[in-house]
Design brief:
- The structure is a single chain.
- 81% of the residues lie in helices and 0% in strands.
- It is built from nine helices and no strands.
- It has helices at residues 4-13, 15-25, 31-62, 67-86, 97-108, 114-123, 126-138, 142-164, 166-204.
- It is globular.
- It starts with a helix and ends in a 6-residue tail after the last helix.
């Protein structure tokens, strides 16, 4: 197991792109509420990745879905997410304006927004889950699978760090800097998406390999 799954997950989750959302939602929070939101959202990100790694293949088997088909579908999903990022939007952001407004209203009265919408769908969602399942199939040993779960820990810690330093990050990078970083990560994700789709198509249609 190499570091490609970690790079892919960092590109998809991209907590830097969610910093403006975090600042917006927690502007009326106390310091204690903000710290709790950081740790709950970060832990939720880890749980999503860990569950996808440990149970994703069993779910595919239950529904009798071939991994090759899942790779093509997942690759298309990753490509769609990368296009969002190239437009300086979060990869997983699928919430509409009404849902985001509801989240703002809940945050304003002190309700938790750590799991929804921060962890799901803004940070993790179908694209990140698909990625973890695809790489879980390539994990041939216990230690390789453990490494994949460990990458979930790294993503969770990266999320916690970005949220904890949200104000300095926003001040230093600004909206333009965050947009540039998001577009760069989107370009990397687009290349990885094509690779995943090509692998799946080769398995489905061996003749494509010559």
């Amino acid at each position: 197991m190499d570091f490609k799954p970690l790079i892919t997950l960092l590109a998809i989750v991209n907590p830097l792109a969610i910093v403006p959302f975090f600042i917006h939602y927690t502007q009326s929070f106390s310091e204690a509420q903000r710290r709790r939101t950081i740790w709950v959202s970060s832990f939720s990100v880890f749980v999503v990745i860990a569950v996808s790694a440990l149970l994703g293949l069993q779910i595919l088997e239950f529904f009798n879905i071939s991994l090759a088909s899942f790779q093509v579908g997942g690759g298309l999903l990753l490509l769609s997410s990368s296009l969002n990022m190239l437009n300086a939007q979060p990869a997983e952001a699928k919430s509409n304006a009404t849902e985001l407004q509801d989240a703002s209203e809940r945050a304003a009265v002190g309700a938790s927004i750590a799991v929804v919408p921060l962890a799901i769908p803004l940070l993790t969602g179908p694209a990140s889950m698909s990625t973890v399942v695809i790489y879980a199939d390539k994990a041939k040993t216990f230690w390789q699978l453990a490494a994949l779960v460990g990458y979930g820990v790294v993503i969770g810690l990266a999320t916690a760090l970005c949220f904890a330093l949200a104000a300095p990050i926003a001040r230093v990078l600004g909206k333009t800097g965050i947009n540039v970083m998001t577009r760069l990560m989107g370009l990397i994700l687009a290349a990885l998406a094509v690779e995943v789709m090509a692998d799946g198509l080769h398995k489905l249609f061996p003749v494509l390999g010559g």
